[in-house]
Specification:
Number of strands of chain A: 19
Largest interface: B-C, 80 and 78 residues
Radius of gyration of chain B: 22 Å
Structural class of chain B: mainly alpha
Structural class of chain A: alpha+beta
CATH architecture of chain B: Orthogonal Bundle
CATH superfamily of chain B: MetI-like
Number of helices of chain A: 8
Strand content of chain A: 35-45%
Shape of chain A: elongated
Distance between the termini of chain A: 32 Å
Order of helices and strands of chain B: HHHHHHHHHHHH
Strand order of the largest sheet of chain A: 6-7-8-3-9-10
Oligomer: heterotrimer
CATH class of chain B: Mainly Alpha
CATH class of the largest domain in chain A: Alpha Beta
Number of helices of chain B: 12
CATH architecture of the largest domain in chain A: 3-Layer(aba) Sandwich
Largest sheet of chain B: none
Chains: A alpha+beta (about 350), B mainly alpha (about 260), C mainly alpha (about 290)
CATH superfamily of the largest domain in chain A: P-loop containing nucleotide triphosphate hydrolases
Helix content of chain B: over 70%
CATH topology of chain B: MetI-like fold
Bound molecules: adenosine-5'-triphosphate, magnesium ion
Strand content of chain B: under 5%
Amino acid sequence: MTFLTLSKIQKSFGAVQVVRDFDMTIEKGEFVSFLGPSGCGKTTVLRMIAGFESPSGGEISIDGRSQANLKPNQRNIGMVFQAYALFPNMNVAENVAFGLKVAGKPKAEIDARVNEMLGLIKLDHLADRYPYQMSGGQQQRVALARALAPKPQVLLLDEPLSALDAKIRVSLREEIRMIQQQLGITTVFVTHDQEEALSISDRIVVMNGGRADQIGSPFEIYNRPATRFVASFVGTLNLIEAKVIDPAANRIAIGDQAITLREPLGAVKAGDTVSLALRPEAGSIAEGAKGDTALTGKVVSSNFLGSVIRTRMKVGDAVISFDMFNAPGLSPPAVGETVTLRFTASDLLIIRE
Amino acid sequence: MKTNRLLAWVAIAIGVVYFIVPLIGTFEFSLRMRRGEYSFDAYQSVFSDMQFRATFGYSMLMAFFTIIFGILLVVPTAYWVRLRLPQIRPVVEFITLLPLVIPAIVIVFGYLRLYNSSSFIPLTNSTSGTNALLMLSYITLSLPYMYRAIDTAMRSIDVATLTEAAESLGARWPTIMFRCIFPNVMSGVLSGAFITFAIVMGEFTMAALLNRPAFGPYLQLVGANKAYEPSALAIIAFAITWLSMGLLQLVSRLQKTAPRKA
Amino acid sequence: MNTANLIDRRKIVDWLGIAPFMIFAFMFLILPTLYLVTGAFFNPAGEFTFKNIADLAHPTILSAYWISIKVSVASSLGGAVIGFMLAWAVVLGGLPSWIRSGLLTFSGVASNFAGVPLAFAFIATLGRTGLVTLLLREWFGFNLYGTGFNLLSFLGLTITYMFFQIPLMVLILTPALDGLKKEWREASEILGASTWQYWRMIGLPILWPSLMGTTLLLFANAFGAIATAYALTGSSLNIVPILLYAQIRGDVLHNPNLGYALALGMIVITGLSNVLYIWLRSRAERWQK
Ligand SMILES: Nc1ncnc2c1ncn2[C@@H]1O[C@H](COP(=O)(O)OP(=O)(O)OP(=O)(O)O)[C@@H](O)[C@H]1O
Ligand SMILES: [Mg+2]
């Protein structure tokens, strides 16, 4: 059931177009992340949904109702800002109560709802604190409770975690996801952190230069990137240039090693160059590793990253990284050593813009 | 948003009318001295008045001394409070704000009783004593502005580190004060100085009650006796204020753009 | 023993450092004030008495206080309201930025343009032969002074005082309005609040300390001002500073100690406005660092 529809949204600031042909539908109760580099227009789209900016073209509708003529305070949307934006002159309980109070709800109902919300974010004991007396993580949880208290139809979060430190970021994002699922609220979450987007979203929109490059589940986005941009932006990725040997047989060569691709090459001729993508975690150099394809190269570096060891090897002109899990007793390959990387041919993706 | 901007323009328009009309009115009035045509006669009359020159010069001189002694009093104090006695900061700040609370006329009333000819420090007995008292009263009046300006400038430099660095190089305290601290808080000192200048040039109460031939009482006298000269004087006074505030802004702008020397 | 000595010496040096300032403040700020305050409770013969204070109830004196308070309240409230509007217009009204810098520069000048010249300016504008008075008559056939308006009255003085009150407010409120974060506005809006609700529940409470503080400062400012009023009206307008001025000059009250009481009354009123400010501020500071 489609709940939030963005159709052909355009937005220009003066002569600069920052959002183009943005098209998507979001289901009721879905958690969608907008992922993309700084300046790609994520915030702008979010602010158009909230009503702080009006689109230069296209239409936004929520639950079948066009939002074009609605002001932000008529839309019944919850929003969480990057910099918390709690009202400094109100304590936690008053902040959470604000939306209900301006809606003229009776006091008993407000109190009950505030308690329920504070319970939800587990901050009952801080109801009397003022924003300056709380940590960033606590403030952001209050901001979440404040946004949820009036039971909005859509929840918008604009990089709510980016001002927090790494540990809190992880625990809070899980908390947000849990609360979202518990309430079943339709949510749009803006981030430029791919791990964040991958870990908590139902679907991800990867944005680039004001456009949605790809929309899909985290699994699809990660494993089947549709464009070179998506492939390079999400996860670490080897981008390898290869020479076509025999288009009919899907044969290509990396350096002087020929391999057969699973995916059809399409309209190319022998001697053309194609771009291939391979995730570092797709292959292994262990003895007896599985895989129908192998590449042999010389190790140029090997970095210990904690749970994984990232090794780079040279095959012809191409440098290919691969990861192996750390284990006691495992000896990382030495620089200069010759190793053979085995992987499944279908993990090698052809990137065509 | 549209209505917002409209309201903003309306507010500004009201402000402009309120502030510009009296200035235009004053200027127009100052030109009316010659019957039937506009002329600068009033200005000529003002500038050729010996009294004008004398009182203006007197107030300039007073402003000069007030600024010098005010700086000598405030800079070391602000420095010392920041460096050694941060705990009494609130007290010092409170004192510096007192002149905004106690009306000037009350303060000078107190002076007249405390330092008159029959008191233990008979400052008003001699002309030089009265001049000194007037200068001290001007320092009092400008204290809130002077202290704030200098203290703000000091906040932006790290007084403690600067002092330690100088001490480690073997500098003695006059050297520290005049070579390290003063140059670094120059912007604050100058802002304070310009405000003080504006205050002293226009001040009336203190000078009138201490019976000194300053510019303020002269203005009042002209106002009571002449028709067109007061407007000319008001325009001149406004120009002086504008000049000192303009210099003040210039200094603070230069300060912002100038690279900070270590 | 030795170290204790050193510490003591250091402490003494510390205090010596601000001795000049303290001596200055004591001699030229605190002592003169105390002298008047205590003097208010003695009669010329040096006996303790409340008579001076009681004598303040004389109709002339009472009405002087009353007019002073009225003018100060009106000009500070007027200054606060108009100053707030102007500061709001340049910070949040979406005006071009040169208007902002122009207004701030002008306010810096106008807030210091007080005293005698200010009186001249208003006489030249709104006096009997002032420009506005003449233009109103010639262009609109409107006789300003026919309506009972008088520059030397409560209304005239209030309008004149506002010339320096408004700019002061603008100077202090502009940075305060800059401190209102855009996100607060947006957060309240998306939670369903109207513009009015935003200002009532968030904007004004946050601005309250600076708004209130400045208004009380303006009040004290106007209450103690004498030069403008004196130049405007000579001693014909009966306000406290002018009464005190006349008393200092010529003992018009025929009792020097009553003059002290008059001064004490002024200190009490400006002092009270500051106590009020500090109290309001501490209430507001519940939510501040
Ligand atoms: N009010 C505005 N006026 C003019 N340009 C704007 C305005 N708001 C945003 N932009 C421009 O639009 C583009 C997209 O901005 P937006 O804030 O949506 O990016 P973003 O994806 O949220 O980036 P970030 O991750 O840094 O928050 C940027 O180039 C920005 O400079
Ligand atoms: Mg953004």
